[in-house]
Write a structure and sequence with these properties.
57% helix, mainly alpha, 201 residues, 2 strands
C-alpha cells in the first residue's frame, strides 16, 4: 500500500469506530428509555422523519413502537407521547414524575436559573406553590371571583357599545386603554373596596 492509501484507510477506520461507539453509547444507555428507531450518529432520526408531514411520521412510529417511544433530533434525545391515553397517564396519573420542564440554553445563560417562567426542578415547585397560594388568597377558584370577572366584562362590553357609535378604530383604541387597567382594577376589587367601573381612579 502506498502511504496516502494507508492514511485514508486509517482515517476511515477511525471515523467508523467513532460512529460505532457513538451509536453503541446511545443504545446501551437507553436501557430505561422507551423503544424507538435506531438513530444515526450526529443526525439522529432526522432522515427517518418526514419534516413536511411530521404528524404522519410520528403516527407511523407510534404504530411500530407503541404510544411512548424515543427518537433523536440530532443528538437531542426526545421521548414522544402519542395519543390521549399516553398523555393522560403521563400528565395526570404520574404528574409528579413528569412535572419537570425542559431546559432552554439561552434562558439558562440569561436568567441563570432564576425567574418564574424558565425555572425548573425544586425551585420551580416552590415558585409554583407560592403563586398558587397567593392566587388562592386573592380568591382564585372561588365562585365570587368568576362572578366579578363576568361583571367587569359586562361593564366593559356595555361601555364599548356606547363608544363612538360603533366605529371600529376608536373602539379598538378604547378597548386597548381599558384592558391596560383591567388586571390592576380586578386585584384592587379583590383586595380593597369595589370601585365603580366608570371611575377615573
Amino acid at each position: 500500500m502506498e502511504p496516502l492509501g494507508a492514511t485514508t484507510v486509517f482515517l476511515a477506520v477511525c471515523v467508523s469506530c467513532l460512529l460505532f461507539l457513538s451509536a453503541w453509547r446511545k443504545t446501551s444507555g437507553s436501557g430505561k428509555l422507551p423503544p424507538g428507531p435506531v438513530a444515526f450518529p450526529i443526525i439522529g432520526n432526522t432522515l427517518q422523519l418526514n419534516t413536511r408531514n411530521l404528524p404522519q411520521s410520528i403516527q407511523e412510529l407510534s404504530v411500530k413502537y407503541g404510544p411512548v417511544f424515543t427518537i433523536y433530533l440530532g443528538s437531542l434525545r426526545v421521548v414522544v407521547l402519542y395519543g390521549q391515553e399516553a398523555l393522560k397517564e403521563a400528565l395526570i396519573d404520574q404528574a409528579d414524575e413528569f412535572s419537570g420542564r425542559g431546559k432552554l440554553a439561552l434562558a439558562d445563560k440569561v436568567i441563570k436559573g432564576g425567574g418564574i417562567i424558565f425555572s425548573n426542578g425544586e425551585r420551580w415547585k416552590q415558585l409554583r406553590r407560592f403563586a398558587l397560594t397567593t392566587l388562592r388568597n386573592f380568591g382564585m377558584g372561588k365562585k365570587s371571583v368568576e362572578e366579578r370577572i363576568q361583571e367587569e366584562a359586562r361593564f366593559l362590553v356595555a361601555r364599548l357599545r356606547n363608544t363612538h357609535g360603533g366605529d371600529l378604530l376608536p373602539v379598538c383604541q378604547e378597548l386597548r386603554s381599558q384592558l391596560k387597567t383591567l388586571v390592576f382594577l380586578f386585584f384592587m376589587i379583590l383586595t380593597l373596596v369595589q370601585t365603580p367601573y366608570n371611575s377615573s381612579h
